């Protein structure tokens, strides 16, 4: 937007999301002769906790450390939610297998690991954080006895230390931290606990999210800087005191719910944290700019903003904050609605990173378990068995990369690193599933897999590269293709993980024998259909067994004569 002729007439208005302070606006004359409004500044009015005006002004100064006063203020938000929001009340829930007994604020420097066998119920807090730091701090079979005797606070990383202080301020006795409460050297215990990860976070009284910390050594508030402020005397509601006037960044303030997505925080790029925040009913989120408290009713922050019923709008937006516990809350969920939500979540999840690539399926297994209940369908390596032909029609976006170790069949979106999407809804299947086999690795039916194969009956035809030189000019995996039966028609295909700026990839592609396997077709508009096809190649020189390497779409005129769509062959995908 090009602006000209600023009028320098300033206007004050309320902050769009509420809260103490104001927005400074100026009218401006835009280039196309229309008038517009330019935001000049956003001001927030804060006060100290012990100031007489603290009952009038809700905003507080953002501090660079987590002190006792801040902990008690945040705990007050949670208590107020528990007392005033009937839909947010969390009764005593089944406790996880192990917890950290944090004691009380008078307990000093010692906490301990405790076993919670049987059906014991109570309240506990969870911690969502980025790992990093010293791996020797993990609980193992060899050190569990000493952990039960006691752990000194100064031996723990700063994030754990802060989480314990915050839990004590809440007057909650127990804290769950995955690194301390799961045996990290026992795969069987890890599998057992990973199955229950969703319920561990869903049953928690509160989740503490160290959103701005890139590792466990940085603490809950590692990067915050105290905002510069001007201290002003003020009288309001017969109270005299002082307020602190601070400038806020314009964009997050004016973008309404978009400013609540926290998408750039380190924790929100972590795959395991994805389901942790989706399941949590209440979240105390330590972001880089301020601390937020989000529950099923509202979102509030340190600078005094309180957004009532915003969570529902945010959850249903392009970047959902939480969908799991809201889905089905107001009645039965249609399968197509649940699947649309699932595909949206998978797209968001596929943007996240993993320390261990093999965790791709386990890190979303809690969500998968919940959606299996909603859909009434078996879960097979990331896809839903009752809708398998359509589920196979996922699309890789450019810049996906290959996985060095096996973690999923080629037909699963979990087999690649990078963003995957589902772009179509209404479809007509062109393939039939004859057989399906998936070998689960471990005790979690929604977790790791050893292998998987699908036997399909579908139209399949040979592809040829339309322009071999195109390989060298396109680094995004796009390639020009055509069929033997329609040599005058070309269309673009997308390889899942091949990068054509790599000589080895180019050479492999030119020696590849690609085929197109048609799955469903979709309505584009009246009288026209678009066919979604997998690009597959023979696996291990077996002419009947194929691996997926990419995808393409095409109209019938691009694919060939009608008989191509009706001639079906039986092939196996691995």
What is the topological layout?
Elements: E1 3-6, E2 11-13, E3 21-30, E4 35-46, H1 68-84, E5 93-94, E6 98-101, E7 110-115, E8 121-122, E9 124-128, H2 144-149, E10 151-152, H3 158-169, E11 174-176, H4 178-181, H5 187-195, H6 197-202, E12 206-209, E13 230-236, E14 239-248, H7 250-254, H8 271-279, E15 283-286, E16 291-294, E17 298-301, E18 306-308, H9 310-315, H10 335-349, H11 365-375, E19 379-380, E20 383-384, H12 388-391, E21 395-396, E22 401-402, E23 416-417, E24 420-421, E25 428-429, E26 432-440, E27 449-458, E28 460-465, H13 470-473, E29 478-483, E30 486-495, H14 503-511, E31 515-525, E32 528-539, E33 542-554, H15 556-559, H16 563-566, E34 569-573
Parallel strand pairs: 9-11, 9-12, 12-15, 33-34
Antiparallel strand pairs: 1-3, 2-3, 3-4, 4-14, 5-8, 6-7, 6-11, 7-10, 13-14, 15-16, 16-17, 17-18, 19-20, 21-24, 22-23, 25-31, 26-27, 27-34, 28-29, 28-31, 29-30, 30-33, 31-32, 32-33
Helix pairs in contact: 10-11
